[in-house]
């Protein structure tokens, strides 16, 4: 499991991942991860979060899916289900950030904004190990207020 500590004022977050039995493949794939830079570029094209929301959802679609060569499950769990998940128990997971039987992915999480969040990766193959590369990016909004005098 990977703990994800979301910063204050997070309005959505994203992660990309890749899975392979070969650690060297994952190391090479990680060098190509640039989710923060790519999403930041889409965000700079917008003005205000209302505009950014549409741009970012288009942005994640435009980002190239990372390569993956072996399957795993990804479960988004909260603090209460973290230990259950790790022990193999019947943990409650959140479908928005979870995927089954997938080699790689790019996932947007908007509804389940709790911290800490945990991404659990489960290898379905009991005969071979698996390596996973992950990058997580949170989008935060900070409101600024100013007053304008009438003179």
Structure description:
- This protein has about 150 residues and is α+β, with helices and mostly antiparallel strands.
- Helices cover about 30% and strands about 30% of the residues.
- It has four helices and seven strands; from the N terminus they run ββαααβαββββ.
- It has helices spanning about 25-30, 35-45, 50-60, 80-85, and strands at about 1-5, 10-20, 70-75, 100, 105-110, 115-120, 130-140.
- The chain has a four-stranded antiparallel sheet with strand order 1-6-3-4. It has a three-stranded antiparallel sheet with strand order 5-2-7.
- Helix 2 (about 35-45) packs across helix 3 (about 50-60).
Q: Give the helix level as a range of percent.
A: 25-40%
**Mean pLDDT reading:** 83
Low-confidence stretches: none
Order of helices and strands: EEHHHEHEEEE
Q: Looking across the biggest beta sheet, what order are the strands in? A: 1-6-3-4
Q: What would you call the shape? A: flat
Give a quick account of the main beta sheet: strands, pairing sense, barrel closure: 4 strands, antiparallel
**What Rg is obtained from the alpha carbons, in whole angstroms?**
18 Å
Share of β-strand residues: 25-35%
N-end to C-end Cα span: 58 Å
């Amino acid at each position: 499991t990977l703990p994800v500590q979301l910063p204050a004022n997070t309005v959505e977050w994203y992660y990309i991942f890749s899975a392979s039995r070969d650690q060297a493949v994952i190391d090479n794939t990680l060098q190509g991860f640039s989710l923060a830079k790519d999403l930041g570029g889409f965000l700079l094209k917008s003005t205000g979060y209302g505009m950014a929301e549409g741009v970012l959802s288009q942005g994640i679609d435009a980002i190239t899916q990372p390569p993956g060569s072996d399957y795993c499950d990804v479960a988004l769990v909260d603090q209460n289900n973290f230990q259950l998940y790790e022990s193999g128990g019947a943990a409650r997971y959140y479908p928005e950030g979870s995927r089954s039987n997938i080699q790689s992915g790019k996932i947007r999480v908007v509804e389940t904004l709790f911290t800490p969040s945990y991404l659990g990766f489960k290898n379905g193959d009991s005969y071979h190990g698996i390596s996973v590369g992950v990058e997580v990016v949170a989008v935060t909004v900070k409101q600024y207020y100013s007053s304008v005098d009438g003179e």
